[in-house]
Amino acid sequence: IAPRAPPRPGTRSPPMAPDSTANPAMDVDFQKMGIYIDGRTKNELDELLAAKKDADITARDLYGFSCMHYLDDGPMNEAASFFGLSRDASVDTDAPPKKILDFGAGFAGDARVMASEFPGCELTCVEVQPHIHAAAERFTALVGASARCKHQCLDIFNEPVVNAPFDHLFSVLVILHIPERDRLWRSLADTLKPGGTAYVEDYFAARPLTDEDKAQLAGPVACPYLPSREEYERTLTEAGFVDVRWETMNEQWAPFVSSRLAKFREARDRNVRVHGEALTAELDLFYSTVQQLFARGNLGGVRIRVRKRDAA
After folding, report:
1. Is the four-CA dihedral 90, 92, 96, 102 of positive or negative sign?
2. Residue range 203-251, pLDDT digits in tens
3. Predicted structure pTM score
4. Residue 171 near residue 75 (C-beta atoms within 8 A)
């Protein structure tokens, strides 16, 4: 990454864990994904700390750069509604908190806000990339959310998730990175209680993918495989899920990713100052690749609400 301009006066964050974007355990390579480079969030945190004392920082302050999905906090709010959560602290005060697994939590922007704003839940964030896990854990401690937002760095194929079984599963734009779908969905089902629910946003092949689609997905997007809708729904059924609600999201996501790219390019001077030329170029490549994929129309986006089958 190119050197950054001299920082403005103010507190700076300490170095985070070294970048390590390869993930041999799950056979996924994130090295071409600019959005996963840890320097991005550290740079944004430094920018925030230059304007605000760390004691005053909230989960919402970190949200903009620690979430990597579409439609801002829309997915989190949709999931909270599906899970029956409430922002009203007086609701079900005697009930045990709902246990939620955030699978592939990344920098855990959603989990921190959910833990901070929905008193009736507690989050367990599972992330496979060590440098992202370390950053997320530090962000959570920074805003005082560690009591109800826990972090684990593990490969779900090889290690048990602490605190399982869960009432709910939340996962947004994560499953697309993992080609072993049958095995993955069985593993995710194993983390849920019978009757537990899952809210997932993901990609699928809406139409046959071209060679260009496949190359862009496998490269900057780190998506080596996509099922059709029929294949996806069959996998869910075979893993023990029922009541599948499939909501195609292209009409909402395509304008969002186009707007995201345009806004990023409009802010080029700011981005180069904060991130340097090299990381700005990596991010532009990622954002533009996703925009092109949705513009061609073969890539599909989906919002899935589903329930694990009740115990026999």
Report:
1. negative
2. 999 999 999 999 999 999 999 999 999 999 999 999 999 999 999 999 9
3. 0.88
4. no
Query: CB atoms < 10 A from the CB of 133, how many?
Result: 22
Indicate if the pLDDT at residue 6 is higher than 60: no
Residue 250 contacts residue 297 (beta carbons within 8 Å): yes
Q: Where are the beta strands (DSSP E) in the chain?
A: 22-23, 28-29, 98-103, 121-127, 149-153, 166-172, 192-205, 241-248, 299-308
pLDDT higher than threshold 90 for residue 111:
yes
Q: What is the CA radius of gyration of the chain?
A: 19
C-alpha 63: how far from chain center: 12
Q: Angle at the Cα of 146 (from 136 to 16), degrees rounded to 5? A: 30
The closest alpha carbon to 76, from 51, 50, 102, belongs to 102
